[in-house]
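Run log, item B.
One chain of 252 residues. Sequence copied directly from the ordering sheet:
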Amino acid sequence: ISGSDAECRDIIKSIRQKLLERGENGFRGLTRTLRILDGNGTSKLNRDELNAGLQNYGMDVTSYELNTLMYYFDKDKDGMISVNEFMVGIRPKMSDARLALVKLAFLRLDKDPDGLLTLNALTKMYAAEKNPSVLRGERSPSQVVRDFAESWNKKPDDIITETEFVDYYADLSASIDNDSYFELMIRNSWTITGDQGHTEGSNLRLLVTHMDGTSTIETLDNELGVDRSNNQTLVTALRKQGVSDILKAEVA
């Protein structure tokens, strides 16, 4: 009733590819869909619930493929699989550098710090006006905030742990190839503009806003003698490196 590990990896690869084709929210959308189907709040799904979740999200699998997935992810053979373990197995692993950045963001947000934040608190701190889709004029800040809140499938006063915060960004990270874009997304979302870990004489990372409203993270190869607080000086140094169409530059 189940396939080999190799067969399961092929099924996972197929599902992963379909999720990647859905763009930035592909993995997060499936996570939310599966958690909605977790009617008893155990964070586990039986075969029928997993099938319903995949079907609802447009992931067509055969009965054999479904049995193979259940066998592979049902660690204690009780007919149930963990939503979290399933998603960890499906999505690509987040790099150590991205993980460190996500944990830095949570540390900045967790003022207590007790490792716990409410969804309401997160939503209030979320800088939607700096979201790339808002900067491109595709969505309003209120739409971005609403989508962000709904993606957690939680009530405003519900708790979000560091692990859940990391899982959220692991879902988003899976569909983002560019490390600079991922870093920009984190820093913009939570207004992280400091330079922790920076040492004099090392390469300086800058948040660059271009003439068309887009933003990128650029590295200043040699910052010796450069006034880091002077926008024009930073812009001039970047132009010498070949970075063009710069509106402004600031330390990332």
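Observations after the first pass:
- The longest strand covers residues 204-210.
- Residues 164 and 244 are 39 Å apart (CA to CA).
Flagged for discussion on Thursday.
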